[in-house]
Amino acid sequence: QVQLVESGGGLVQAGDSLRLSCAASGRTFSAYVMGWFRQGPGKEREFVAAISTSGGRTSYADSVKGRFTISRDNAKNTVYLQMNSLKSEDTAVYYCGATRGFYYSASNYESWGQGTQVTVSS
After folding, report:
1. What is the Rg, in whole angstroms, of the alpha carbon atoms belonging to the chain?
2. What angle do CA 83, 20, 89 make, to 5 degrees?
3. Under a CB-based contact definition with an 8 Å cutoff, are residues 2 and 15 in contact?
4. Is 88 helix (H, G, I), strand (E, B) or coil?
5. Which pLDDT score, from 0 to 100, does residue 26 have?
6. Can you give the pLDDT at residue 1?
7. What φ, ψ does residue 36 adopt, rounded to 5°?
8. Which string of DSSP letters, residue by residue, matches 5-56?
9. pLDDT value, residue 36
10. Which residues of the chain have pLDDT under 50?
């Protein structure tokens, strides 16, 4: 398995931007499909975005499409989530996950980071 550490969360105002990073350990990072999920208070962990091993395929939840961009740098073992035009409903703990297939369900991801809090004030 790969070990993951997220960073970049914080408190911002509605309309602001943030970039989250997820650093992976191990030499097999490029073999994993990477995903970003989020979990709000009292809610289940929900899919945000995913990116294929090469970065050539991406997918987004409808709620973030056009505002968020997922990318990866396999040379740096890092996946990013650029979040623009943030809304109060984006407030959540954001997690990155690693999996072997292109999945949208958290149950299919085998490794998780500890999460980073994003709070958007309106």
Report:
1. 13
2. 45
3. no
4. helix
5. 78
6. 83
7. -115, 135
8. EEE--EEEETT--EEEEEEEESTTGGGSEEEEEEE-TTS--EEEEEE-SSS-
9. 98
10. none
